[in-house]
Amino acid sequence: MQSYSVLVVAAILFVLGLLGVLTRRNIIFILISIEIMLNAAGVAFVAAGARWGQPDGQVMFLFILAMAASEVSVGLALVMQVYHQHKTLDVSKLNNLKDDIEV
Amino acid sequence: MNYLFYISSIVAIAATVMVITRHQPVHALLYLVVSFLGVAMIFLSLGAPFVATLEIILYAGAIIVLFIFVVMMLNLGRESAIQERQWMQPKTWIGPSILTAILLGELLVLLTMGGSAPMPQQTVDLKKIPLSLYGEYVIAVELTGFLLMAGIVGAAHIGRHKKKYLHRFLKQEEEAV
Amino acid sequence: MQEVLFLIPALPLVGFLILSLAGRHLSKQVIAVVGAGVVCIAAIATIWLGINFLQIPPENGAYTVTLWRWMSVANFNCSFSLRVDALSLVFLFVITFVGALIHIYSAGFMKHDRDYARFFASMNLFVCAMLILVMADNLVLMYLGWEGVGLCSYLLIGFWYETTANVQAANKAFYITRIGDTAMAIGLFLLFRELGTLDIPSIQNAAPEHFVKNSSLITSIALLLLAGGMGKSAQVPLQTWLPDAMAGPSPVSALIHAATMVTAGVYLVARMHGVFQLSPFVMNITAIVGAVTLLVAGCSAMVQTDIKRILAYSTISQLGYMFLALGVGAWSAGIFHFFTHAFFKALLFLAAGAVIESLHHEHGIFKMGGLKNKLPVVFYTFLAGAAALAALPLVTAGFFSKDQVLWYAWSAEGGSPLLWLIALAGAFITAFYTTRLMLVVFWGEAKTHVSEAPGRLMTWPLIILALLSVVAGFIEWPHNLLHVTLFSDVVQKVLPPVTEKEPIPSEAIFQLIAVVATLSGVYTGYLLYKKNTSIVAKWKQVPALVGLRNFFFSGWRFDQLYHTLFVRPFVFVTNLNKQDVIDKIYTGIVSMFQWLNGIFSVSQDGSVRTYVISVLIGIIFILALQFIL
């Protein structure tokens, strides 16, 4: 088993997550895709740590885990709030920050 | 161990593909659990049993549960699945697929370009992880503590059910309409 | 003695600070006590200082005290130091003593005014600035006082700012004196470049060695300084602001625009006599400016109908006498005329203020009349002041000083018969318009009802000033009579003595001629306005005389001239550039950025997907760079 094969798996997982973010319109699916991307990054870290036999990769994974946990809790709370106020989960309708400047 | 890695990689990638193509949120979440389990197996094959355990407990356990709760509270049933089907036209996939394929190609080229070394097969000593966590990374641990605190407070604050409140810009817009 | 020197300008400053910071919380009585009190204490301190000065003259003839270093840049050092010599002492005495009397008078005069505290605060600040001006040891500090009095003059002319005309008058005074101030600043820069110092004693010492007499450099410096003095002292051609400055309250006119501030130009020329003496050409210019001014202003004073404008033009005219005296080299005569003039002109303004106040703010003299019996105190004091202004022989202060100026206008080094003749004509005119003013205001029949007689606060300063108008001249007698020279003895410790021409004609003949001119002026006034008023009525039928009268009335049309020469071309040019050509560049830049903003704001469409795609394209691009580089 070569070290790049793990990184290739991580890259594929990351790109799949990115594809999900780009294609889906439902915020919940976008959040799920972001989780996949974070997970892929964690895989890359752990692989790098294993390659050199050092614990740092696993430590980084722990931080990513904590970050993902707080991100998901805030993100889901935002989803609840968005649904409550706009009665939709469609991100293409949540574009109130559009700059309507007329020239 | 090599076979374990390749099989679990294939399972993880296949499950992830299923996640991003599902119409029903609950189905997507179930495939996500499978994907996480696959990744946990990859960790195990890399000689990292501790993070594999954490992957299962926290990702496949806690975070998925959060998602499921939200899906239940929003009551996303058949209507949302129909909605998703309408949104998932093949043409919406073309552009993002091309872009991500380019990115993947670049990543693969870069990863294979730098040469490779065989992965060592021994497990990283579990004792080393907490020692370095509370040694050189102690500041990062503290900061992570802040982050989690902020996450809890933020989630509690944002998720509270209050009466519809609009930002003042949006309010003006609404009045104008 | 030197240690308490700083108290004299500091006291009015303290008064200003108290009144401006806490004025609105104080009762009018407290304000009056603070406002007038600090100046009175300063006056007492000055008198004490003067007595000490005269009894035990200090070394070098001056008290000097350095309070602190003001600024120090490279080889330029400027300290906040005060210096009192005989010349400063004369000015100090007039400023604080007359100032104190005017403050006391104001306490009564302004008692119905809303902005009592603001008035006294500005007056105190003025006194402080004026004291700094005359006590300054270096020209930078003097310039501070110079601008300070200009500011206070502006504030007080526009004191009743609700009326637009008052504000315009204040602006006019400010702008026109600014012309002179700028010239003076340039003169100071030149002096500093040449001598490397602005300390007054060092300039006096270094100037004769450094400059070649009559060189163009010293001439231009002296001319610039003279221009500064002309602006402040309202000399032709910068005199037009002073008649309008009468928009301020009467005590302001008395203090600032008669007794003290307008004589700052005289002080400057006298103070810088070392520079002026190096340029006889500029000395001649000074004398000619003075002579022209006294004639121009005198003619205008003859036909005015507003009591304060008559006095204003007469002030300009008397300032002309002072400049004439300085110009011909009769330094102490000029300062002596300032000294007596301060008393009787302050008195005339204060008395005029009392008259105006009792007649419901009536300014026109032809609507007054018959006030002789109704306001006896004002009448007698006004009479004393007017007699001094007209220079009635022997019994008034004005006679002694003006006689000296007239005499030196011929006999001093820079004098000439022509200057003497103009000054003599001026004396005739002065006597004439003073008589006219007296007769029209106080004799004849009453035309306006007298509401209230001035209170004691107002009459006492008048009486004291009237006494001084009579006796102040006795300290200096002509050479052929008595020969008392108390004043010039003191002043000549600082100012150079007069060098007289040879051969000198007999002084007595000149005095006789001057007396005759004065008396004939008085008689002409009496003839035209009392005995035989039909002559004036007949003259009003002659178009040429009416045209001349209007010409004089408008102040020789200087205002119209400046309007045509400066204001209208300026307005024309500004109209041409209404679109502001240079501004086009900036509006162009602004519209370019607005255009760019319009383009880039397309990218901000509010959609998360667009942003993610943008980020993705960026990542792809950066990774692609890895292959290229």
Automatic annotation (TrEMBL), chain A:
A molecular-function term among this protein's GO annotations: quinone binding
Membrane topology, as annotated: Multi-pass membrane protein
Organism expressing this protein natively: Pinibacter aurantiacus
UniProt record similarity statement: Belongs to the complex I subunit 4L family.
Catalytic activity, as annotated: a quinone + NADH + 5 H(+)(in) = a quinol + NAD(+) + 4 H(+)(out)
GO cellular component: NADH dehydrogenase complex; plasma membrane
HAMAP family on file: NDH1_NuoK
Assigned EC number: 7.1.1.-
GO biological process, one term: ATP synthesis coupled electron transport
Record-annotated membrane-spanning stretches: 6-22, 27-48, 60-83
Designated name of the protein: NADH-quinone oxidoreductase subunit K
Name of the gene this protein is made from: nuoK
Sorted UniProt keywords: Cell membrane, Membrane, NAD, Oxidoreductase, Quinone, Translocase, Transmembrane, Transmembrane helix, Transport
UniProtKB/TrEMBL annotation, chain B:
Pfam families from the UniProt entry: Oxidored_q3
Single Gene Ontology MF annotation: NADH dehydrogenase (ubiquinone) activity
EC annotation from Swiss-Prot or TrEMBL: 7.1.1.-
A GO cellular component entry from the record: plasma membrane
Membrane recorded as keyword: yes
Main enzyme class: translocase
Membrane association type: Multi-pass membrane protein
Bilayer-spanning residue ranges: 6-21, 28-50, 56-77, 98-117, 137-158
Alphabetic keyword roster: Cell membrane, Membrane, NAD, Oxidoreductase, Quinone, Translocase, Transmembrane, Transmembrane helix
Reactions catalysed: a quinone + NADH + 5 H(+)(in) = a quinol + NAD(+) + 4 H(+)(out)
Domain of life: Bacteria
InterPro entries: NADH_UbQ/plastoQ_OxRdtase_su6
Subcellular location: Cell membrane
Quaternary state and interactors: Composed of 13 different subunits. Subunits NuoA, H, J, K, L, M, N constitute the membrane sector of the complex.
Family assignment from sequence similarity: Belongs to the complex I subunit 6 family.
General function of this protein: NDH-1 shuttles electrons from NADH, via FMN and iron-sulfur (Fe-S) centers, to quinones in the respiratory chain. Couples the redox reaction to proton translocation (for every two electrons transferred, four hydrogen ions are translocated across the cytoplasmic membrane), and thus conserves the redox energy in a proton gradient.
Entry protein name: NADH-quinone oxidoreductase subunit J
Gene name per UniProt: nuoJ
Automatic annotation (TrEMBL), chain C:
Superkingdom: Bacteria
GO biological process: ATP synthesis coupled electron transport; electron transport coupled proton transport
Keyword tRNA-binding: no
GO CC field: endomembrane system; membrane
Membrane-topology annotation of the record: Multi-pass membrane protein
Keywords: Electron transport, Membrane, NAD, Respiratory chain, Translocase, Transmembrane, Transmembrane helix, Transport, Ubiquinone
Listed name of the protein: NADH-ubiquinone oxidoreductase chain 5
Natural source organism: Pinibacter aurantiacus
Lineage: Bacteria, Pseudomonadati, Bacteroidota, Chitinophagia, Chitinophagales
Record gene name: nuoL
